[in-house]
Amino acid sequence: MENLSEDRIIKDRLEKLEKLRKLKIDPYPNRWEKDRTIIHDAITAYDDSNESANSKQLCISGRIIAKRAMGKIIFFDIKDQSGKIQLHYKEEESEINKDFLDLIDIGDIVGVEGHLFRTRRGELTLDLHDIVILTKAIRPLPDKWSGLKDNEIRYRQRYLDLISNEESLEIAVKRSKAISSVRNFMNNRGFLEVETPILVDIPAGGRAIPFSTYHESLEKDLFLRIATELHLKKLIVGGIEKVYEIGRLFRNEGIDHDHNPEFTTMESYEAYEDYNTVMRMVEDLVSYVSIEVNGTTKINISDDLTIDLAPPWQRLDLRKAIIDNTGIDFLKFKNNNDLANEMKNKGFVADQNEAWGILLDRLISQGVEPKLIKPTFLLDYPIEMSPLAKLKPGSKDVVERFEAFVLGHELANAFTELNDPIDQRNRFLEQEKQRKNLGDKEADRLDEDFLISIEHGMPPTGGLGIGIDRLIMLITAQDQIREVLLFPQLRSKK
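Request: output the structure for the sequence above.
Response:
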């Protein structure tokens, strides 16, 4: 019945479209030749104490989202990106033909002229002097009162979600502001923004299964990048001492509340610094973005939970955090069989066929991360989990790496970058061995061109990767990544 009803609505609107054409009215004009005022500005400029100023003729354009007829009086609600306002039409006081208004439907985009006044109920309203159709909508909008409740439709037809859901539009706006804030923060610190290739010969620089493609002209396989890291480090070698990139990465992985196969990150590298400098920068960056977007460092998650992003953030040693939360000391279980068995003994999911570093990562995900609610840095990871990070001075097992967590979600990952080309080559070879012997499809890959670059000398460097989508989730208090992506990946429609 629902589809049949929509079919009838479409048929009715097509008939109205034909009537407009017969009246020599173009239902899709190229432009509107008026000095347009956005609704927000019109509302904020209204002065209850100055009636003469309020008699000014205003020109507003937007989408009709409601229509209420009461005899010879018609009320419309019109919406643009900045807000919405009520329109008022009274047949006996207007030169507008009521028959023409009958051809206007909810969803149509119109241009209107009139002056503002307050109704007896105190609602600010535009008294309609003229109205033109700028776009005739053929399909109906979601019902105003029930709204767009089906998440599948919301994500697949995001334009309907933006029209009917003010929160979705607000998140989209905040995302744009947040990315601009990140860019401003980095630029103000003297970092140079660059762009690096998305199509690469070797998908290295992280743990991931890549997407592959084929270049017809070059006659070779290529991959969508899984990280921007190695190209950015080449620029550090080249003498650009502070560099960053905001861009899309692509990983052939599952989809859940935290993951989407394509996602946005900001990666940065700063020569002559280590992960301590980067740690302080992350605190400053996240709090700066929150203030720029929300006006405060405090995020209200629920009625009984508010978190504060202001520095300093909590710092926890990884090994101690694992022991405190799981009872397992990873230094006592140095092969995958022993670690997997101990994890199972403690009630955690584990597979002894997986590499030791993967098992430890699973242990952290299950036993530690969910408890990291307030902003926290986990410090100093085993070398097996961090093939691109530099060893802590005096250690053969632990590298200078941190991950940042808020509300149980990973937000950022950072290293003191490995710049010893011989050590780096050996670690890449170990990763290749894991892929071959353990079937670890996500293991990092040896990139000979990158190794050649750092053989020319890369200075001590602090590197950072921060998830932009996760950052937006945080500052908009969302727990689903699809809420902060305008067009998330979805299964094909059946």
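The chain has a mean pLDDT of 93.
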